[in-house]
Specification:
Layout (H helix, E strand, L loop, with lengths): L1 E7 L2 E8 L2 E5 L1 E5 L11 H6 L5 E4 H6 L3 H6 L3 H5 L5 E4 L2 H7 L3 E4 L2 E5 L6 E4 L1 H11 L3 E3 L11 H26 L10 E6 L5 H12 L5 E4 L8 H11 L9 E3 L5 H8 L5 E3 L2 H7 L2 E4 L2 E4 L26 H9 L3 H27 L3 H14 L2
Parallel strand pairs: 4-5, 4-14, 5-6, 6-10, 10-11, 11-12, 12-13, 13-14
Antiparallel strand pairs: 1-2, 2-3, 7-8, 8-9, 15-16
Length: 376
């Protein structure tokens, strides 16, 4: 169950009750594609850096180690030792971005595994079955993610098929949640709005999926090549046509600035690989912009990554030491940067929630964006 605690303009401060606990929104989901955050981050670390939801990937876990094995071992929560909510994305984006040669048909998609080349078929029912085996808290509907630059005719046909697939996802999830051997009989389903950068296709699809009364609604197919301005425009025209009393999830986004702007447009769920990917390359986020710890100017810098930060890296280690670790290709350097970045994102979400509660979100956003653009 989702309830709005406070609104400040379009910005929503809410909470979502799930079978694995209640989460506070807006929130950032920490991405653990193959049931682990890249950068040697353990689930015990996630508790220390304020993680509310961990996100794993249906396609990757289906390919390796296999969703049936995970079900046999008690489900994803037990497997990775994490008792808070998990969202699994449907595999749709990976099928279309990783699989190379593929055939899209009404029943689903035929493609080859990127790991060993074996033939795989995935459609709405298969995606729901895999996610049910994983026993995640929130399952995403199976969709096609058309290119942002695809022609209008292709996008319209794709969105129409995605809508038909959503109906099948909903029916299959209801069936699976009623089975005796299903681990999580309270699995939630989020639908995904598509339509590339065509306003009218996006709005029409938003209206159609809103009628299905799902547990939440996502916007997919953004941050995949279009400009930030185009993405914000799509949010401006589309979000008002999604149910305000359900979570609104912007998939795969993004930078701190992207998140701040999207919250202002009514979005309250986010995920992105940026904090972990950038951290593994020595790029760390601060309230005064991003630092590249490989830069020589940090060679003798005994300050933490950010003064006052309470993350596990900043409480103990200096920029100089972390830079040394990165240069020496020691895994600890990567790990400390990833922990800092995820802590930074999760702390920013705390600040966002507080600002909305105090009805000063617009001021907070502008101040935060200004500070981050200044550098230090």
């Amino acid at each position: 169950m989702y309830r709005i605690i406070k609104k400040d303009g379009l910005a929503k401060r809410g909470e979502l009750q799930t079978v694995h606990g209640t989460v506070q929104t807006p929130l950032f989901m920490n991405v653990g594609t193959a049931a682990a955050i890249k950068g040697a981050v353990a689930t015990t670390d996630l508790l220390k850096i304020k993680t509310q939801i961990e996100l794993s990937n249906t396609y990757h876990l289906h390919v390796r180690p296999g969703d049936k094995l995970i079900k046999e071992l008690g489900g994803l929560h037990k497997f990775m030792v994490w008792d808070k909510p998990i969202l699994t994305d449907s595999g749709g984006f990976q099928v279309f971005s990783l699989a190379g040669l593929r055939k899209i048909k009404e029943e689903g998609v035929y493609f080859n595994s990127h790991v060993d080349g074996r033939k795989i078929f995935m459609g709405p029912e298969e995606s729901m079955q895999i996610q049910s085996n994983l026993a995640s808290t929130i399952a995403m509907a199976f969709d096609e993610c058309p290119s942002a630059v695809a022609d209008r005719g292709y996008v319209q046909n794709s969105v129409d098929r995605t809508f038909r697939w959503l109906g099948r996802c909903k029916d299959e999830m209801q069936r699976l949640n009623g089975l005796e051997d299903t681990i999580n009989k309270h699995q939630m389903l989020f639908g995904i709005n598509q339509g590339a950068i065509y306003d009218d296709i996006r709005v029409d699809h938003a209206k159609r999926i809103s009628e299905l009364d799902l547990d939440g609604y996502a916007l997919g197919g953004l941050a995949v090549g279009e400009s930030h301005e185009e993405m914000y425009h799509i949010l401006d025209v589309t979000v008002p046509h999604l149910p305000v009393d359900k979570p609104t999830y912007l998939m795969g986004v993004g930078t701190p600035a992207n998140i701040l702007e999207a919250v202002d447009r009514g979005v309250d769920f986010f995920d992105c690989v940026y904090p972990s990917r950038n951290g593994r390359h020595g790029h760390v986020y601060t309230n005064y912009g991003k630092l590249n710890l490989f830069n020589q100017k940090y060679e003798k810098d005994m300050r933490p990554i950010e003064e006052g930060c309470q993350c596990p890296a900043c409480r103990t280690y200096s920029r100089a030491y972390i830079r040394h670790l990165l240069k020496a290709k020691e895994m600890l350097g990567m790990r400390l940067c990833v922990l800092h970045n995820l802590y930074f994102y999760n702390t920013m979400m705390e600040e966002i929630r507080e600002a909305i509660e105090q009805e000063r979100y617009r001021t907070y956003k502008e101040e935060k964006l200004y500070r981050m653009s200044q550098g230090k």
